[in-house]
Design goal:
This protein folds into three domains: 100 residues, Tyrosine recombinase, N-terminal domain (DNA polymerase, domain 1, Orthogonal Bundle), CATH 1.10.150.130; 152 residues, Orthogonal Bundle (hpI Integrase, Chain A), CATH 1.10.443.10; 49 residues. It is 50% helix and 4% strand. It has 348 residues and is mainly alpha-helical.
Length: 348
């Protein structure tokens, strides 16, 4: 039996104050509301994710969202979990939460219903296999840093991770003396005896070119903003705190903060940064939109490939084998790969 409004006068028969609304109408209103603040790609993603929810509502004969319950949301969660990976499910349920919050604001569902959407837990490793930062988002972060935090430690950290596609451990391993400003590059070296080993050992040692712009950024950072300290082994790290070489945990937290959309724009979850718990230093990693460092590496590799950089060049620059590159990092569609090959073969 379908769950529809029985009053016939456009209002519910109870005293909840809710007004009847069909899933399709609510989704259309939500997408129109988000149109000014989301990119075209994000709107497409939200449309697809909520389309699955609309399909499920149709199967369950739910024609009025006023009657949606926590049990319904759990049934939907289980229904989707049968067909998709956990990390994909997380993305869909996060969008559903924001949608339900919007529905509550227009008297379509009970207030607080969004909290009854249970989000599965996934590890950073699982999440990083599916998520990468897009070029547009990375460039917006860099524009913000260039304007408001020029040559700060955060500016240098994000710029190096994005432009070189290196691992967090590689970034930590770089010393001031490893930065060559004459032929701008970073000399990456394996130094396990002083606690800066590279993941692939000596095979990962290489020189990574740096653009002229970021040569200037790094130079200004060293000159004005770097803590002038040594680590426990007498080395001068490039990325420092007042106590020595910056820890991996501190770098992760910095990236979580920098990738929060409210840092450089509007919150896509309709929250006010002033009273959002995710702006708290200890909870930044819990923000639905924040990213850990690995998706920065993943996004950088994908961006290089889409721009037509040969696979062997990306492999050497980012220290990733061709097999792993193709299996775990290359996010391009087959059509995108074809266009890159065609442009390379046809030349300028």
């Amino acid at each position: 039996m379908s769950r529809t409004n029985e009053a016939g006068d456009g209002h519910r028969t109870d005293e909840s104050g809710l007004e009847p609304i069909e899933p399709s109408e609510a989704i259309e209103m939500y997408l129109q509301n988000r149109q000014p603040e989301l990119s075209e790609k994000s709107i497409q993603n939200h449309t697809y994710r909520l389309g699955n929810f609309e399909e499920w509502c149709g199967e369950q004969e739910i024609e009025n969202l006023n009657y949606l319950t926590g049990r319904d949301l759990n049934r939907y969660r289980n229904w989707r979990a049968r067909d998709i990976a956990t990390v994909t499910l997380v993305g869909e349920l996060r969008t559903l939460r924001v949608f339900l919050e919007f529905c509550a604001s227009i008297d379509g569902v009970e207030p607080g219903l969004r909290e009854k959407v249970r989000i599965p837990s996934v590890s950073d490793e699982e999440e990083s296999k599916e998520i990468h930062i897009g070029v547009e988002r990375a460039e917006r972060i860099l524009e913000y840093l260039n304007q408001f935090q020029y040559a700060s430690r955060d500016h240098v950290v994000f710029a190096i991770l994005w432009h070189t596609g290196c691992r967090l451990s590689t970034l930590r391993a770089v010393d001031v003396s490893d930065f060559d400003s004459e032929e701008p590059c970073l000399e990456v070296r394996h130094r396990p005896e002083s606690e800066t080993a590279l993941k692939n050992g000596e095979a990962a040692e290489r020189s990574i070119a740096v653009s002229d712009h970021y040569r200037g950024v790094i130079e200004d950072y060293i000159r004005h903003n770097r803590y002038d300290v040594t680590d426990d082994y007498g080395r001068e790290p490039l990325i420092t705190s007042e106590y020595g070489r910056l820890t991996g945990t501190a770098i992760r937290t910095a990236i979580y903060q920098l990738t929060q959309p409210c840092t450089y724009g509007d919150c896509p979850h309709d929250r006010e940064p002033s009273d959002c718990e995710y702006t708290n230093y200890e909870k930044v990693s819990e923000c639905p939109s924040s990213l850990s460092p690995h998706p920065i590496r993943r996004g950088s590799i994908t961006a290089h490939l889409r721009e037509g950089t040969p696979g062997e060049v990306v492999s050497e620059r980012m220290d990733v084998s061709p097999g792993v590159l193709d299996k775990h990092y290359d996010e391009r569609t087959e059509r995108e790969k074809m266009r890159v090959r065609r442009d390379y073969l046809e030349g300028p």
